[in-house]
Design a protein that fits this description.
mainly alpha
Length: 184
Amino acid sequence: MNALPPLSPLPAAGKPGRRPPIATAAFLRAHPAHWIALGFGSGLSPRAPGTVGTAWAWLAYLLLQQWLAPMQIGLLILGGTLVGWWACTTTARRLGVADPGCIVWDEIVAFWCVLWLAMPMGFWGQCAAFALFRFFDAVKPGPVAWADSLFKGFGWRGGWGILFDDFVAAFCTLFVIALWRVLW
């Protein structure tokens, strides 16, 4: 039986020739946690991996909703959060970066929350949700910046921090959508 490769410790600071691994296709294949955290490869995008990961989440959600009931999608999001917490923690430690941009599982599970709670919406409503979520996630205004500063570092606390600010961005997105629906 093939065992998973052991996780290497964080690279020693200041030691010449010791670089943390970089996210490549080989890194993606090296451990199941990498597949999840890197959004099944969407996080390897050389430009705007968070946007690519969010687009992957959108497409995946549209496919999943054809086979899963809303309650099942909610359970998938809950399970995806728990498994993603492990995957993000493991992958960030392996990369030696507390919150690497190539980790996009946080965008995926948070945008699934947006779509799950805001649907049904037409194409343009979904585009607006996508743009709002990307705005809150990238710019990190107010509460998103606060959430981003709470849980830093490596280990389980840092892994949760990778996810948490995206959940706050999802909440902000849902808040704007709710205001829009009430006012128009």
